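User: Hey, my collaborator sent me this sequence without any context and asked if I could get a structure. I don't really work with proteins. Can you help?
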Amino acid sequence: MDYKDLIASNLSRCTGLDKAQIEGLIEIPPKLELGDYAFPCFVLAKTLHKAPPVIANELKDSPELAEGFDGAVTVDTAGPYINFRIDKGILAKSVISEIIDEGDQYGNRNIGEGRNVIIEFSSPNIAKPFHVGHAFTTILGNSLSNIYSRLGYNVIRFNHLGDYGTQFGKLITAYRLWGDEQAMHDNPIDELTRIYVKFHDECKVSEEREKELEDTARDNFRKLEEGEEEEVALWKRFRDLSLEVFEKTYKRMGIKFDNYNGESFYSSRIPAVVEMLEDKGLLEESEGAKVVKLDDVGLPPCLVVKSDGTTIYASRDLAAVLYRHEEFNFYKNIYVVGLPQQLHFRQVFAVLKKAGYDFADDCVHVGFGLLKFKDNTAFSTRAGNIIKLDEFLDKATEKTAEIIRKNSELRGGDMTDEQIAQVSETVGLGAVTYTYLKAGREKDIFFDWDDMLDFEGDTAPYLIYTYARIKSILRKAADQGISGDIGPADKLTAEDEYAVIRSLADFKDSVVKAAESYEPFMISRQIALIARNFNRFYNNSRILNAENDEIRDARLKLCEAVADCIKSGLDMLGIGVVEKM
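Assistant: No problem. I've predicted the 3D structure and written it out in structure-token form, which is a compact way to encode the shape of the chain:
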């Protein structure tokens, strides 16, 4: 039984407020003794012309409010709040039964059935290394895709490749001047990076050299846009070689895409966009360029076509939105792109809105912060200052393997090298992923190896270890012929037990909140709370040798429910689990 849903339905009938609005207002009291849920009556004061405490008392006594509670929920008030307290035993049995029934799919709902959600993420630049800075959009976008899928939406994962633009004119120029064919064969991304960096180094030699190279690059990009055979062939080669390298990283991280339409895909659609904007009288000349003025919405002009006639990010994104709506009729079109691009997306959405496309309101920019190390290292392909993601993942795996091997040796060497390698890959990659998702996405991330791999901190290793610990308990129970029983779960009312159950009950809400706010940390925070509550319970309670068989069986089912919930939450974040550590 979803008691929060029942409470929201009853409050909706009593107050006339929309159920969704009620759900948004219901709070979790700061202390368990105040109850499980609380509804503030301030919102009703204006319409009912009464003081909130008076409204709270009147609602408390309404027969409609208690409909379906059947003794499982008691109601009282505290000033302007209506507090709902669920019988601990009933809630324990209800929550554990629901999780055992749903297994590691606990938290799934059909909220989005029949609705298409496009999530654009990762979107690396072709011919450039996949570095740790790209990981934020990739990990965040993958998690949001998982979350929306688990809520019943039809998610289309877009990788909007950076495979067009003036940088390709530079790259074609650099390849013709300094490209090494053997190096292209052996390690194409490194070679393309080398010549790209050299292009910018050469531009620093003198103003004359810079002008010569930049002019050649612009001409090469113009030829690419016009479909010249040689330039297109080079561009396609750079793209194909880059994708081969990127796919290896995606496969390692367990990430898949449904669509790889990059910027180049929309190039042929831009003339229609320009014509549409002209027909609507929105396109204006500005110093030789074509722009849409947005003064009426407090934004600077949106550049659509540059003075030399070439296109820009905005023109391609406008074409992309129109194509996506026509092709997929999206419910939401979500862009997981860094915060510095906030103005760009506001302009693109504003142009669409001004052109009369109301689905611009369904386009969402999900921004995120910066990645930093303790020495404030910055990342720049031009300067050649990058940390490749694969090398970073390798290091995380190696450091995890050192910890796992040491712990295994302390236990007498109970894990083989192959087992250590498999566990370290899962835990190491999980540690990196969790670091990006454990706090609000707009906060900057400061990487620290000790923090990331702390088996007792707010980390993926801690969560995965908690899962493995529970699996060990369940294996021992199975070896003793004990399977546990949900029947006596209503006896799990002790403080430590109920804290676990209460946090499990709140998990489903955290999934919905994560989707609504585009914040996977709502889930990471909740499963971290569940793990902390469980470990407190584990340290203070006997499980296999409990005081009687009923309590033992009930606690084993609680263990099973916690494992399923943690696995479900980690899966939504894009993190795997291991059965033994």
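In plain terms: Confidence is low (pLDDT under 50) at residues 377-384. You can pass these tokens on to your collaborator as they are.
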